[in-house]
Amino acid sequence: MRIVITEFISLDGVVQAPGGPEEDTDGGFAHGGWSHPFFDPETVGGAFDEVLKNAEGLLFGRRTWQTMAGAWPERAGDPFADKMNALPKYVVSRTLGEDRLTWHNTRRIRGDEAVARIRELRDTAGGDLVVMGSPTLARTLVAEGLVDELRLMIMPVLLGGGKTIFPDDGGKHTLELVSTVTSGTGVHVCVYRPAAGE
Question: Exposed, middle or buried by CB within 10 Å (0-12, 13-18, 19+), for 158?
């Protein structure tokens, strides 16, 4: 499977709490919901539809999984929601018990086994394993060289700090820009893949 990370991201690299004010206030983050003014159904929504079309599974960190599990099951009947609800889901967590995995078709990956287990999943045949949000997990996957594609919805806003998916370990990761399209709201939807030889 390919690991594909898709993110709403600000010009200064922040991915924290794009969906709502209470989504993630860690570190005093006060800009929750910042992506809403820039969302458009055709370009940005279409980018998510395209990602989900090739998805054979979803991979989340605990906090993002809990947010998604609290939102998507009640939206049944919408084609996007139905696909999200039906796909196999993996959540990386040290704390979630099996009894709390209430979102249909969810399996837990223990935090201390995450990198090894995700490598195994990546080595299996199939379509894409899609990561949405989950900045801590995404950062680890980038640092470990386990990302086959980055799909970034780069939004024209500076947030001045917050969680990012980019490692700060001094490692170099060269990417190739595969495609880009710009929405009428100024969002650049960019697809990157590791450069040959990386």
Answer: exposed
